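User: Can you help me understand a structure? I only have the sequence.
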Amino acid sequence: MWQEFLIDKTWATLLAGLSGLVAGWGLGALSRWLPRRLEQLWDQQRVEAGGQSQALPIVDWRTDWRVDARSVVLALLTALLFALCVWRLGPTPIAVCGMALVAALLALAWIDAETGLLPDVLTLPLMWLGLLVNLHGALAPLTQAVLGAVAGYLFLWVIFHAFRLVTGREGMGHGDFKLMAALGAWFGLAATPTLLLGASLAGVVVGLSLRLSGRLGRWQALSFGPYLAAGGILMLLAGVSLGLG
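Assistant: Let's start by predicting it. Here is the structure, written out as tokens:
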């Protein structure tokens, strides 16, 4: 996974950045289309179960391929992160895998921030890909990757049920468990405390800031997925190079 391709690192970094521009535009379209498509499928299942259909807009993926401020920002961010993957990890297969991880995390962060959803269609393949990447210990030994996936899921699962038992409310969604399991599969058991602590602290700081500014109500939920995604990207670009993965 660390065997370098026969290409100059500078050119490889430039090529990754250009690929990121295209991928980022596609991620913007996917992040708009996927939640609406899932809502449509859930509505169909509700009707088949004898429920009442909701008035949902027609899902047409062609309308999602548009250029706006958010699409431009996402494309530029994806280009930067793709380039950093190659610059930090070299022109290697693991850098390509890292770009796939970055793309998935950016899409999940966008979708969760906008809709509160972390679709299984993204989180579960990301977990399996992490285990495959670590089949020969690319970022973490396979045993540590498996334990990281299990621990990541169970830790948030326990917190979820403890919080619900004490308050009677749900503090997070099941998608957060699966995203944390995916990150554990990528970076191993040893990295999960750092990822969870960093994401939690960032979420607390942002949540308090929004509440003090009046932009977040007392019982209003704050999506946790974007902070987990940011932690995963930082771990890939900084932790791996420092030997923390």
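Now, to help you interpret it: The helical segments are 9-48, 69-89, 93-115, 120-133, 142-167, 174-187, 192-212, 225-239. The chain has eight helices and no strands. Let me know which part you'd like to focus on.
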